[in-house]
Write a structure and sequence with these properties.
Number of helices of chain B: 9
Oligomer: heterodimer
Helix content of chain B: 25-40%
Radius of gyration of chain B: 19 Å
Mean pLDDT of chain A: 91
Largest sheet of chain A: 2 strands, antiparallel
Structural class of chain B: alpha/beta
Number of strands of chain A: 2
CATH architecture of chain A: Orthogonal Bundle
Order of helices and strands of chain A: HHHHEHHHHHEHHH
CATH topology of chain A: ABC transporter involved in vitamin B12 uptake, BtuC
Structural class of chain A: mainly alpha
Largest interface: A-B, 30 and 51 residues
Number of domains of chain A: 1
Largest sheet of chain B: 6 strands, mixed
Radius of gyration of chain A: 20 Å
Helix content of chain A: over 70%
Strand order of the largest sheet of chain A: 1-2
Shape of chain B: globular
Shape of chain A: globular
Number of strands of chain B: 10
Order of helices and strands of chain B: EEEHEEHEHHHEHEHEEHH
Strand order of the largest sheet of chain B: 6-7-8-3-9-10
Bound molecules: adenosine-5'-diphosphate, magnesium ion
Chain lengths: ~300, ~270
């Protein structure tokens, strides 16, 4: 019973952390239709930024903002490569992911893992320290939950603004954005900045949970985030009108749960990435199926003009 | 005719000595425009006809900046706009395409589409996307289409019929003040009845707003009945260009005859 509870807690905590990234990938992949591979580099970037700054004595909460800004800067590079230099979206992501490998190592001071045990983190200072002592064990869970809700609300609000509408229009029909007198390239770059900012934020929070940053932490993040978004949307779309961000959060938790169950059933950890790829493949295939189904049952408004 | 071609005044749009070829130095090389000159004067409603591949769409694309000329000048109100990217030119141009999905956003609601169109050419920023105070105005505009869209402002545009979408695209293209309305076979993808509805709507909007317009159409009846200037394109040249009374002299059989003569000349 105790083990089940701690596993659930583990799934939720990690699910919330990866949900931060899934919300960003929801923007790039679902709204802008941009499969952004740079996330594999911006996720650990957030972690090493946290480690470097916390070791230098910075306020852990400030590291969240700086990690977001760092991720956004990397996202801007992906966007510029794609939009201004006309490199394909996949290659732009690969280029930035590869370049970030060096950047991350430099920020980490040349080490693959940077530890900051017993240094202040968001879980022990500021809001984290306010969490009542009786919930001490669940502090990380609570802070992660609050962060994901805050990010969700901010992104939801952003999507209802003029620029948010423009972003949605851009993924839908770039010509429409042109017709409005706006450069769809700029809109895409902003979307990629937000997406990668969120990924770095997730990496920053994860590093503070484990009190160390691993430059290898990004391996498979794109697959994980895409799976979370696709599973979330294809499962919950049929249950009514959920916000995209909500479905991304559900997707991230479900995905984490699935991996956790596989591990507790005795799957050797070496097989984890194989399983992750298989789950995404499944999600992509079932998405295709779901789309066809919708096409058949979709009710058209047919009054003639 | 109410909208008389105001020749004698300065042209609104001028294309001067335009050269344009596609796929240069390849087996597919198409030399389309060679020293092409074309002017549109304020208040003109130009209908353009011509066989496939005669350069009608490319002419519109050159004006809008979707295709860039090899050489020559393009001016709007005497100001050179060569080099201005498409989106900058678009701020003062309304455009409706043949494909109904191009002029609107399928996944966004009618209301969201209109709210965006309302900001055309202005800054966007982080203000609320939908200005509640404008909703009644949007409804009033939709009512004028007489398609019942005013009761459906929250449904995604993708679920509308082609005709409804094209009527909405027309509304959206002309919501804010523009210098020029550009229509490329915007009724061609519709069934005959919707096609007539959208064409009548177009004429009504052009007249009521006094818009200078350029319309490509395959429908000779529309070309003859609507507008105050008729142009026939052939191999990158305007082989007919008639405004005002001269235009009124053309009937559908005259145009058909010329089309046939061209085909014979081309050996078809
Ligand atoms: N983007 C392009 N690439 C290559 N050839 C093109 C392109 N656009 C137009 N053309 C060629 O230019 C000619 C005129 O095309 P277009 O202006 O679309 O004709 P229309 O609209 O009158 O049917 C055609 O021969 C077409 O093949
Ligand atoms: Mg054409």
């Amino acid at each position: 019973m105790g083990i089940a509870l701690s596993l659930t807690e583990n799934v939720l905590r990690e699910g919330f952390v990866y949900a931060l990234m899934a919300i960003g990938v929801f923007i790039t992949y679902k709204i802008l239709d941009f499969p952004d591979l740079s996330v594999d580099g911006t996720f650990p970037l957030g972690g090493v930024i946290a480690a470097a700054l916390i070791n230098a004595g910075a306020d852990p909460w400030l590291t969240l903002l700086i990690a977001f800004a760092g991720g956004a800067a990397a996202g801007a590079v992906t966007g510029l490569l794609h939009v201004r230099l006309r490199i394909t979206n996949l290659l732009s992501g690969i280029l930035v992911m590869t370049a970030l490998w060096s950047v991350n190592l430099i920020v980490a001071g040349g080490k693959a893992v940077v530890q900051f045990f017993n240094r202040p983190t968001i879980f022990s200072t500021g809001f984290g320290a306010l969490v009542s002592a009786s919930f001490y064990a669940q502090r990380k869970l609570i802070v992660a939950f609050v962060l994901v809700m805050a990010l969700k609300l901010i992104v939801d609000l952003f999507l209802t603004t003029r620029h948010g509408l423009l972003l949605r229009a851009c993924g839908n029909n770039a010509q429409f954005v042109v017709n409005l007198g706006k450069d769809p390239g700029t809109v895409k770059i902003v979307g990629l900045m937000i997406g990668n900012g969120c990924a770095a934020l997730a990496g920053c929070v994860l590093a503070q949970i484990s009190e160390n940053a691993d430059v290898n932490a990004g391996k498979g993040m794109v697959v994980m985030a895409l799976a979370a978004v696709i599973i979330g949307t294809s499962l919950f779309e049929r249950f009514g009108k959920f916000k995209g961000t909500t479905m991304a959060i559900f997707g991230a938790i479900l995905y984490k749960a699935a991996l956790q169950i596989a591990l507790s059933l005795g799957l050797p950890p070496n097989y984890l990435k194989l399983l992750m790829a298989a789950v995404l493949t499944l999600a992509l295939v079932s998405k295709e199926f779901g789309a066809n189904e919708r096409y058949v049952t979709g009710k058209e408004v047919t009054d003639e003009a | 005719m109410k909208l008389d071609a105001a020749v004698g005044t300065a042209p609104l749009v001028s294309l001067e000595h335009i050269y344009k070829r596609f796929n240069p130095r390849s087996v597919n090389e198409t030399v389309l425009f060679q020293d092409f000159n074309f002017r549109i004067y304020p208040g003109q409603f130009v209908s353009i006809v011509g066989s496939n591949g005669s350069g009608k769409t490319t002419l519109l694309n050159l004006i809008c900046g979707s295709v860039i000329e090899d050489s020559g000048n393009i001016l709007i109100e005497g100001r050179k706009i060569n080099g201005d990217p498409e989106y900058l030119r678009a701020a003062r141009i309304g455009r409706v395409f043949q494909d109904p999905s191009k002029g609107t956003c399928a996944d966004l609601s009618i209301l969201e589409n209109m709210a965006l169109a309302d900001r055309k050419g202005k800054t966007f920023g982080l203000f609320p996307g939908i200005n509640r105070k404008r909703i009644d105005d949007y409804r009033a505009m939709l009512e004028q289409l007489r398609l019942g869209l005013e009761d459906k402002i929250h449904i995604p545009v993708g679920s509308l019929s082609g005709g409804q979408r094209q009527a909405l695209a027309m509304l959206i293209a002309t919501m804010t003040p523009i210098d020029l309305l550009v229509l490329d076979e915007h009724t061609a993808a519709l069934d005959p009845k919707s096609s007539d509805t959208v064409m009548e709507l177009t004429d009504q909007v052009v007249r009521s707003k006094g818009l200078t317009s350029i319309m490509v159409t395959h429908n000779l009846r529309y070309a003859v009945e609507y507008g105050n200037r008729l142009v026939m394109m052939h191999e990158g040249r305007a082989i007919i260009d008639a405004a005002g009374d001269a235009k009124a002299g053309y009937a559908i059989p005259d145009l058909l005859k010329i089309f046939n003569e061209i085909s014979i000349e081309c050996g078809n």
